[in-house]
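Worked example 2:
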Amino acid sequence: MPGGDVIMFNRKMDRSPNQLWFLDEMGNLRSMLNDFAPECRGQGDHFQMQPYRGDVRQQWRFEGNRIVNRMYPMECFDIERAEMRDEALVIAWPYKGSINQHWRMDYV
């Protein structure tokens, strides 16, 4: 459903499609569940899942251990307030090197 928040949640062992992502042909992050893309309006805003339109606010890609915006590479995925709990919001924030901004890709 469009508008669902991107949140943190412990990984499920059954490889639930709502927890799986892929990189499209342009290298943009997309959901395996419905082909939606994470989107935000700007710095400090939380991500929501929206149908992919190719808008710059949907162009997020892996760069090393960060997920950055293609047009604004200093803006990255950040777990709000570094909360390590289920349902913590994921926001866009300038990269500062903290652990809540580092991500890893596991291939399944």
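The domain at 4-101 is CATH 2.80.10.50 (Trefoil (Acidic Fibroblast Growth Factor, subunit A)). The beta strands are 4-5, 21-23, 29-31, 37-39, 48-50, 60-63, 66-69, 75-79, 90-94.
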